[in-house]
Design brief:
single chain, mainly alpha, two-stranded antiparallel ribbon, 4 strands, about 10% strand
């Protein structure tokens, strides 16, 4: 009989009427029958009784979020870990590390070493960027606070000027180019722009295309016919 390659999770009622998680590995057919039975039993267990039923009270399901949870991933700024993480091991470890400056700040040396290696590959050294951040400060900020931020008030933009940046992400924001400019653009933002014998490092060459975004939710352009 054909077995599934992943485990199946279920609930088990213990003697003290509390629920206990169980893990099983069973044939597909048995799992299908078990799922049907579990669904049927669940539908009975969570069906509210009529208030007119003698001796019965309506059942109100409650959501219990107590217990211990484990972070599996995090929503970071686009491309930061991909560009500065270096190895796959560093990227994976970073993604499952708690979102706090102390824990994630431990990855700053990895980010800095990767950024330095990029510049060394072109016989150059990092220069303070548009936001007047040194390489140490930039990699400290990016490693410690790599989360997509949203400002509840004001302009939503990934980067508009030196005084207005990282308040969110508009659909038309070229977030990858912004990151590349902060990595390689230097004080003026165009240090490695493909001119004067320099490589093109401040843009990935991918723009917004011919998309026409809406000004109302969900803001995306109309689907193609």
């Amino acid at each position: 009989m054909d077995y599934l390659t992943h485990t199946t999770y279920g609930l088990q009622l213990k003697e003290d009427n509390t629920m206990n998680t169980i893990t099983t590995s069973a044939p597909k057919a048995l799992k299908t029958l078990s799922l049907i039975a579990l669904t049927f039993i669940g539908s009975i267990a969570f069906t509210s009784c009529d208030e007119d039923d003698e001796g019965m009270n309506p059942v109100t399901p409650t959501l219990d979020l107590t217990g211990t949870f484990q972070q599996e991933d995090a929503m970071g700024r686009p491309g930061i870990t991909t560009a500065l993480g270096g190895s796959d091991a560093v990227k994976n470890n970073y993604n499952v590390t708690a979102q706090n400056p102390t824990a994630r700040g431990a990855f700053q040396p990895d980010f800095l070493n990767t950024l330095t290696a990029y510049h060394n590959a072109y016989g150059a050294t990092y220069q303070t960027n548009l936001l007047n951040l040194s390489d140490t400060t930039l990699t400290t900020v990016l490693s410690s606070f790599d989360a997509l931020q949203v400002a509840p008030e004001g302009t939503t933009t990934y980067f508009e000027s030196q005084s207005l940046a990282l308040t969110g992400r508009a659909l038309t924001d070229d977030v990858i180019d912004v990151s590349l400019i902060l990595f390689f653009g230097g004080p003026g933002g165009a240090r490695f722009d493909g001119n004067n014998g320099t490589p093109q490092l401040v843009s990935d060459g991918v723009g917004v295309g011919d998309r026409q975004f809406s000004s109302s939710f969900p803001y995306m352009e109309a689907p193609l016919n």
